[in-house]
Amino acid sequence: MTTNASIRTLTATTTAVPDAERAHRVRLAGAWAIAIAFLLVVGAYGFDYYTLSAVARPLSPKHALLRPSGAIGIKLGMVGVAMFFSIYLYYFRKRWGWLAAIGKTKHWLDFHIVLGVTAPVVIAFHAAFKFRGIAGMAFWIMVAVALSGVVGRYLYAQIPRHLNAAEYSWQELQDEQVALTQQMAAQKMFTAGELVAAFHIPDAEMVKHKSAMGALLWMFALDMARPFRVASLRRRVLGFGRVLTTLGGFLASGNDELERVVRAVRHQAALSKRMVFLSRTQQVFQLWHVVHRPFSYAFVVLAILHIATAMFLGYL
Which of 137, 139, 255, 128 lies closest to 190, judged by CA? Predict the structure, then answer.
């Protein structure tokens, strides 16, 4: 059965699945909120200083505080480096049994991303947005690590896993796809043709002839298009007033039956996409490891050199 054929057969009321990940999402949202608030406070306080030219900065009353060796600047550097070094707990977790017993791998990865994205910005504030010498090299390598980490998180999410991070077998993926199809077998809200049009997935043969990078971009494009397709499905059912209150169908409608159908079909489409692109995703993920880790190790070396130099010159 092709992926589009399986979607075409989707026609069942589905029961809401308990959201076992809700607590994690709340913690993750809290971590992002704290990180963003911290960056906004520092940015707002130092905006009039960071926007000055290098010549004018020594004349600013905030120079003694915000320069890299200043009272605040040096602490920002310490916080940024501590955050970046904390990222390596994710790697050590795979090797230390007592750490591996705490939480789930994908939850650790999410906080790993929060630290990896936030740390470069904190370091940029520490450097007062002036990147020179060893510190400048370390900063740009850290930015490369952060960006590649975001890509890696996306790739990781495309490889279906259990909650314990073990990958599904192909048979398990097929079983889950059949179960989702059966869940939708009795729904009458949308025709099979409407579902196929809304969640079209390319066939495996089409993906096979794409390069690994081409397949990755195609997969990303499908993910970007999905919210618009979901909105289109909602607009088919909702009246004009509800379309307005849901911002054109992009927000949940409050119609329980509609939202259950949308969740089930969206899950089916995402699973089918992952199955079709699985071999390509695994190839790119292996290549990503080759790039990501050396960059992160290079940053550690340069950061240590920068700190040692600062200590030798008496800045610490």
Answer: 255
Token pair recorded at residue 166: 């073990």
3-state secondary structure of 11: coil
What is the amino acid identity at position 1? M
Contact 239, 279 (CB under 8 A): no
Contact criterion met (CB below 8 Å) for 121 and 89: no
DSSP assignment string, 185-249: TT--SS-HHHHHHHT----HHHHHTS-HHHHHHHHHHHHHHHHHHHHHHHHHHS-HHHHHHTTTT
Residue 161, φ and ψ in degrees, nearest 5 = -140, 160
Can you give the pLDDT of all 316 residues of the chain as single tens digits? 454 554 444 443 333 334 557 788 888 999 999 999 999 999 999 999 999 988 899 999 999 999 988 889 989 988 988 888 888 887 787 777 777 778 777 788 888 888 888 988 898 898 888 887 777 777 787 788 777 777 777 877 777 665 455 556 656 666 666 666 666 656 667 776 676 666 667 777 777 777 777 777 888 888 888 888 888 888 888 888 888 888 888 888 888 878 887 777 777 777 777 777 777 777 777 777 667 777 777 777 777 777 777 677 665 5
Q: What would you report as the CA-atom Rg of the chain, rounded to the nearest whole angstrom?
A: 24
Calculate the dihedral angle through the C-alpha atoms of 21, 148, 221, 238, rounding to the nearest 10 degrees. 30
Tokens coding 265: 């079909």
**What residues pair up with 161 in beta bridges, in sequence order?**
167
End-to-end Cα, the chain, rounded Å = 65
- The 3-state DSSP class for residue 169 equals coil
Contacts of 288 (CB under 8 A, 6+ apart): 148, 151, 152, 155
Is residue 180 within 8 Å of 264, Cβ to Cβ?
Answer: yes
